[in-house]
Amino acid sequence: MISVAEALAQVLALARPLPPERVPLAEALGRVLAQPVTARLTQPPFDAAAMDGYWIAAADARPGARLIVTGAAAAGHAHQGALSPGQALRIFTGAPCPAAPGRVIPQEDVTREGDGITLGTLPKSAHIRPRGGDFAEGAEVFPRRPLTPRDLGLMAAMNIAELPVHRRPQVAIIATGDELVMPGERPGPDQILCSNSFLLAGAVTQAGGIARMLPIARDTEASLRAVLGAAEGADLIVTSGGASVGEHDLVGKVAGEMGLARAFWQVAMKPGKPLMAGRLGGAVLLGLPGNPVAAAVCADLFLAPVLKRFQGLEIPASTAKAVLGCDVPPEGPRAHYQRARLSLGGDLPVITPFAQQDSAGLSVLAQADALLIRPPQDGPRSAGEIVDYLPL
Ligand SMILES: Nc1nc2c(c(=O)[nH]1)N[C@H]1C(S)=C(S)[C@@H](COP(=O)(O)OP(=O)(O)OC[C@H]3O[C@@H](n4cnc5c(N)ncnc54)[C@H](O)[C@@H]3O)O[C@H]1N2
Ligand code: MOO
């Protein structure tokens, strides 16, 4: 059995960033830029008033000065023509300022009578946003993360209407097992609901992929072959179940007959030991264990990172430190990812694993907000010790 770190390295080595495609700016939320984009103009394109008030020439800027208001400039409407000494311009936020040196006095800071104003104490700020104060034409942006609403705002201001982004990975999701029925159906006495496909599709969507849920493959080679065949065109095939050692565990056998180049099977982790990975045709195949929590943990540890890789993202170490909230017993030969809850602590949060750690227990999984990581052969640990965890 290989370690989690080795398995992750091998999974990531199976995938390459997907080629770029161009998408309209309005559809780019969460997408990842494939190359830098550059500002097509300078912002602000002119010295702009930052307050509603009066623009005055630098030479007229002294407390007590009386000036005549001779014209107006508003956002989208510059004032044409020059001002003479002793003249002020009514100006509104966002309006272009005259080219001469000057400043904007907020209207609250002057006394206005008829078309005259009298200046009081001059405010510290000139209340002018200088041309190019935000960014200059040609400025490059290349955030190495899924684009946020803030990125879209910046790129809109840069007049970038279309973006080159990595294609989103197409992910085929295949549940296997005679015991499974879909939510909404009535299970027979020996049956349970297929939960894995929904958990996995959610994980795929959250990580920027496009999930395609295929029909449940039954526990026959013919059924599994047919459903795997229907995954044609996917960048990633994720199966759940049928990965272990029983006679009904057919994924390795059937995928092998279909040409799977297997990278590994079985990882020293708990839950998730029967994980399998390889390449099947043009796709990466992740064969997840059927136990729902095992599938969920494998999704956090392997599926999310490989989806990042497809989108050209770095995969930073995502573990964090916390203080153990209770004593915990020693561990065996597999790294144990324990469902846990975080609470506020001092410098570090406090992490407390749930008493129930069954790899089929979805209720506890849904309440967990972290996975406490117990390394292989970890000794007993006491409350107060510092441990690693994976935020969920
Ligand atoms: N003799 C051994 N038995 C088992 C071993 C082992 O090493 N030796 N490993 C155990 C471990 S660890 C796991 S995890 C499971 C995983 O087995 P499979 O991947 O073959 O999964 P199945 O047997 O098909 O199913 C296991 C369990 O999960 C339920 N399941 C499956 N698919 C779904 C789904 N889509 N939604 C909800 N629940 C699902 C299934 O009904 C079973 O209860 O094997 C151990 N056995
Ligand atoms: O993956 Mo299994 O028990 O390790 O759930």
UniProtKB/TrEMBL annotation:
Keywords from the UniProt entry: Magnesium, Metal-binding, Molybdenum, Molybdenum cofactor biosynthesis, Transferase
One example of a Gene Ontology biological process annotation: Mo-molybdopterin cofactor biosynthetic process
An MF annotation (GO) of this entry: metal ion binding
Broadest EC class assigned to this enzyme: transferase
MoaB/Mog domain location: 172-309
Catalytic activity entry: adenylyl-molybdopterin + molybdate = Mo-molybdopterin + AMP + H(+)
GO cellular component, one term: cytosol
CDD domains (alphabetical): MoeA
Cofactor dependence: Mg(2+)
UniProt cross-references to NCBIfam families, sorted A to Z: Glp_gephyrin (NF045515)
Family: Belongs to the MoeA family.
Function, in words: Catalyzes the insertion of molybdate into adenylated molybdopterin with the concomitant release of AMP.
Protein name (record): Molybdopterin molybdenumtransferase
